[in-house]
Amino acid sequence: MRRLRLALAALVVGALVLAGCTGTSERRLTVFAAASLTKVFTAFGDQFESDHPGVTVAFTFDGSSGLVDQLRGGAKADVFASADEANMTKAVDAGRTAGEPEVFARNVLTLVVPPGNPGEVTGLDDSLNGRKLVVCAAQVPCGAATSALAEKLGVRLKPVSEESKVTDALGKVTAGEADAGIVYVTDAAGAGDAVESIEIPGADQVVNNYPIVQVEGAPEPQLAADFIALVRSEQGRTVLTGAGFRTP
Amino acid sequence: MTRTVPGWVAALASVGALLIGLPLIGLLLRVPWVRVPALLTEPAARDALWLSLRTCLASTVLSVLLGLPLALVLARLRGPWAALGRVVATVPMVLPPVVGGLALLVTLGRRGPVGRLLSLGGVEIGFTTAAVVIAQAFVAMPFLVVAVEGALRSLDADAELMAATLGAGPSRVLWRITLPSLLPAIVSGTSLAAARSLGEFGATVTFAGSLQGVTRTLPLEIYLQREVDTDTALALAAVLLVLAALLVLGTGLLGRRRPARVRATASAATTPGGAG
Description:
The structure holds 2 protein chains of 2 kinds.
Chain A: H1 2-20, E1 27-34, H2 38-51, E2 55-62, H3 64-72, E3 79-81, H4 85-93, E4 97-107, E5 109-113, E6 133-136, H5 141-153, E7 161-163, H6 166-174, E8 180-184, H7 185-191, E9 196-198, E10 208-215, H8 221-232, H9 234-242
Parallel strand pairs in A: 1-2, 1-3, 6-7, 6-8
Antiparallel strand pairs in A: 3-10, 4-10, 5-8, 5-9
Helix pairs in contact in A: 3-4
Chain B: H1 7-30, H2 36-40, H3 43-76, H4 80-94, H5 97-108, H6 113-120, H7 129-153, H8 158-165, H9 170-199, H10 202-207, H11 218-228, H12 230-256, H13 262-268, H14 271-274
Helix pairs in contact in B: 3-4, 3-7, 3-9, 3-11, 4-7, 7-9, 8-9, 9-12, 9-13, 11-12
């Protein structure tokens, strides 16, 4: 009995110590960024930490709407970077932004197919008949862009799946489960050899803008401003274009 | 007849109850109840609800049909094979569902070893309702297996042995003795599996995709609606919560009053066929 009691006490103490371990004396910049920015923003974070000794950059990468939900719920953050203007507007309307959001990157859509193009897809045309096409659902930014583009190009898409995340759409193509998918050029670039891209003529007609802003009540306003400046600097643009983004 | 627990146990218990109960209460408080009927008649919501009910029923039947024999065999196994079998049968319970979905995708997807064979025969599972059912059964069946196997191992073997000695064949012993005494465990295991099927998200989204009326079940619809309309997402979440609660509650009541019959069946099993 005594041993059991000791073990229980040890368990409780251990759990508390582990839970408390995340607290450090360093300064900490918290950045909420859209999932599609994971690669480039991680690079920005490394750069920022080496420019600012003693500062840790903590990222939360998630769907933009999920991040807005967290901000609305009162989550503490310094910087918010959204994958579209609609979600940034939601954050502005909720009073969680300080200052004017600024567009720092743009993205366009492309068609991707598995390596070797087993479905012999040539574009958004008859070659898609009887083939498995995956797209994003209209409720999420990449899907809204896909519907808008299909409408502008006058094509009717018949997808077998409308995914709620662009990474899920991409995953179905890299797994070879789908014959083609519509994703952002940056997702295609990030997937490397796992997919082949087929440019959609006229894709420029629908451009997705990525705005960034300082969060209202940011615990580290100065660091937030510095981070936004880094993203929008010449060096930042180089990193962004290297990942397939366009810059304003 | 009430047993009292030490005060500190009661204190910890109430913290535990709050940890589980408060978020559920918080959710129910936020649900826009007045608008729920209107939100649920939206075609997307209706399709999702109907699809969820159908697939959940199918995967639960599948779980019982295959999980029950699996539990029976596992309980009889001894040695390293038993341990291995038990691990394999229960691992989907602790896997993140997304990992389960990936496992299904690389196995049953058309590039996978099984999927490629099926594809040669003209069968492609991906993006179909069948994929949803398989994903649900994959994550849900272990709940049934664990419940039934646990009950089997603590089951008193005397009645089974006696029936066998009196001449009842293995199938007869199974139907007349073993299964009736397992009924509470089967019922609770089935309800857990059904509730788990109903809530399945990760494996479905990874393996089956998401298309209205075909693969987009209630949890997937909730996830998607959350992007644009929190009210609809909350309304659907409330429906899911109520359905799951009813499932667990209903079968809980059903399972409680069975064991009394079992003792009587031990002798009943042998009377008609055993005499000859």
